[in-house]
Amino acid sequence: MDKLKKLVDKLEKEQRLSKEEFIALINGRNEELAEYLFKKASDIRDKNYGKRVFVRGLIEFTNYCKNNCLYCGIRAGNKKAERYRLSKEEILECCAHGYGLGFRTFVLQGGEDPFFTDEMMVDIVKNIKKDHPDCAVTLSIGEKSRESYEKFRLAGVDRYLLRHETANPEHYAKLHPENLSYENRIRCLHDLKGLGFQTGCGFMVGSPYQTTENLANDMVFLQEFRPHMVGIGPFISHKDTPFANERSGTLELTLFMLGLVRLTLPHALLPSTTALGTIAPDGREKGVLAGGNVVMPNLSPLNVRKKYMLYDNKISTGDEAAESLNNLKLRMKSIGYEVVTDRGDYFER
Ligand code: SAH
Questions:
Q1: H or E element: which one contains 256?
Q2: pLDDT value at position 200?
Q3: Pocket flag, ligand 1, residue 310 (CB < 6 Å)
Q4: Which of 59, 165, 183, 190 stands 20 to 30 A from 225 (CA)?
Q5: Ligand 1 mutation pick, 61, 63, 204, 315, max ligand atoms within 8 A of CB
């Protein structure tokens, strides 16, 4: 036990460990070690960002997708998914509504939908920036060429979220169809960082075939790549995917990984994700107590929310809904945190 606590101390001090050390921590974890880790993770987050939790308004603007990721409910092969796209006007309305509620970051997320050309995305982003010059815009629309990313950057996009999903090429191949490669995913992430986006990667915890070694790979990847944001959440099966009968990831392991990420990347923006809130009613609060400092309530129009079903039972209308921002504020207050409406940019002193 003491040996493992010493490893946590070492991670805190040096912000890096070897793959073997990460494996030892993950395999040897128990409640006591987790508490030890969460306390340190929380203290570091408090030191860097205070008792503040940032909010982002999430606009899921299309669930059309040309890809066929085996885990994802909006994969092209899921003929049961009811598809929708928001128009430019609807997206701008979401932003205006969100602005009124206090949001100063808008995250446009979608499947990889060729209907939205680079030019359309540039036009949408420019309009959001024109309407709300004090807001940050984040895109999360998958793998593109460097040229496309550059166009988005020039249009004013501040941040880009692209989870690496798993930092092990063989594992990556088990989660994705043959036409998608780990190499291209990583190429995208390097392009994004090189172009000056605040760049987010991330992974699912408990995805099919995942080993402890894979999770250690993820940690080693993070400490090398040093992203500005890391989205991690449990894998949750979706009934109309090839992984319908696979077991979902646990709250416990997801929180432990979140704590490790906070010690590795003391300044990172770490969302306490919707998937965490989906597997446990107090998952979001627990995510903050393990080191998270971002929540992303859903700003999509109510009539499409149920259609963006990445996994079964994805929550969208409770306290994770943008309209319930006040409830979310109260929840965070109950654990000693204040939801703030700054842009919440990455910050390193
Ligand atoms: N098309 C975009 C957005 C994908 S959805 C992109 O490629 O980046 C955002 C994230 O949801 C994915 O990166 C994935 O990690 C997560 N996700 C998808 N299906 C999931 C599932 N079944 N369980 C948990 N998370 C899932």
A1: helix 251-264
A2: 98
A3: yes
A4: 59
A5: 204
Q: Are strands 294-295 and 52-55 parallel, antiparallel or unpaired?
A: parallel
Region for residue 54 given its phi and psi (left: phi exceeds 0; alpha: psi -120 to 50; beta: otherwise): beta
> Nearest residue CA, atom 1 of ligand 1?
111
Which secondary-structure segment (H or E) carries 234? strand 229-234
Q: Can you name the residues that pair with 339 across neighbouring β-strands? A: 53
- Regarding the beta carbon of 205 and ligand 1, being less than 6 Å apart is answered no
The torsion angles phi and psi of 21, rounded to 5 degrees, stand at -65, -40
Q: Which atom of ligand 1 is nearest to the CA of 310?
A: 19
CB 29 within 8 A of CB 255: no
Answer whether 277 contacts ligand 1 (Cβ < 6 A).
no
Tell me the mean pLDDT per 10 residues along the chain, length 349: 94 98 98 98 96 96 98 98 98 96 97 98 98 98 98 98 98 98 98 98 98 98 98 97 98 98 98 93 96 95 94 85 87 96 87
Q: CA 172 to CA 199: how far, in whole Å? A: 20
61 CB near ligand 1 (under 6 Å):
no
Q: Report how far Cα 121 is from the mean position of its chain's Cα atoms.
A: 21
Contact between 111 and 62 under an 8 Å Cβ cutoff? The reply is: yes
What local confidence, expressed as pLDDT, does residue 316 receive? 84
pLDDT number for residue 246? 98
